Amino acid sequence: MDTEGIKRSLEGSGLRCTPQRYAVMAFLMQHTGHPTAAEIFEGVNRLDPRSSRATTYNNLRDLVQVGLVREVAVEGRAARFDAKGMRHHHFICDGCGRVEDMEWYDVPQPAPASLGKRVLRECELIFRGLCGKCAPRQASR
Ligand SMILES: [Zn+2]
Ligand SMILES: [Zn+2]
């Protein structure tokens, strides 16, 4: 997504395109490795030291709320963030906490009876295990 695209998607979601908000969105589009809020703040601040930590975190929260950014909760560690582009599932490593993208495929929806009065927004999978770096090496034969 280019500058115009980011601007359009912010405004399309009802958010004003402030320079700080734009910077958070642009950083996430460029860094697809699921940075934490602290990493986003550092990255944005390196380019434009006008953003305070509070502003960056608030902008991040707004972007999650309107659905432009996805928050990936990692048990026992800082949450990681992802600009929602292509739909994908996630793999979370138990060893190092790294979050990797997994190819998207449709997940079966729960039966209406089991949903009750809940309103389903989306349905995604989180795979857990060990990433390529943390998985024990196979003994070579
Ligand atoms: Zn790992
Ligand atoms: Zn992702």
Kindly list the characteristics that best describe this protein.
141 residues; Arc Repressor Mutant, subunit A; Dna Ligase, domain 1; 2 domains; binds zinc ion
Briefly say what this structure is.
This protein has 141 residues and is α+β, with helices and mostly antiparallel strands. The protein has helices at 3-12, 19-30, 37-47, 53-65, 112-115; strands spanning 69-72, 80-83, 88-93, 99-103, 126-129. Helix 2 crosses helix 3, helix 2 (19-30) crosses helix 4 and helix 3 (37-47) crosses helix 4 (53-65).
Instruction: Fill in the CATH topology of the largest domain.
Output: Arc Repressor Mutant, subunit A
Number of strands: 5
- The CATH class designation of the largest domain is Mainly Alpha
What is the annotated CATH architecture of the largest domain?
Orthogonal Bundle
What is the distance, rounded to the nearest whole angstrom, between the alpha carbons of the first and last residues? 47 Å
Shape: globular
**What structural class do you assign from the helix and strand content?**
alpha+beta
What is the number of domains?
A: 2
Explain how this protein is built.
It is a single chain. With 141 residues, the chain is an alpha+beta fold. It folds into two domains: 1-84, Arc Repressor Mutant, subunit A, CATH 1.10.10; 86-141, Dna Ligase, domain 1 (2-Layer Sandwich), CATH 3.30.1490. It has five helices and five strands, in the order H-H-H-H-E-E-E-E-H-E. The chain has helices at 3-12, 19-30, 37-47, 53-65, 112-115; strands at residues 69-72, 80-83, 88-93, 99-103, 126-129. A three-stranded mixed β-sheet has the order 4-3-5, with no helix packed on it. Strands 1-2 form a two-stranded antiparallel ribbon. Strand 3 and strand 4 (99-103) form a beta hairpin. Helix 2 (19-30) crosses helix 3, helix 2 (19-30) crosses helix 4 (53-65) and helix 3 crosses helix 4. The longest helix is centred in the middle third of the chain and has 13 residues, at 53-65. The radius of gyration is 17 Å and the shape is globular. The model has no long low-confidence stretch (mean pLDDT 91). Bound molecules: zinc ion (ZN) (2 copies).
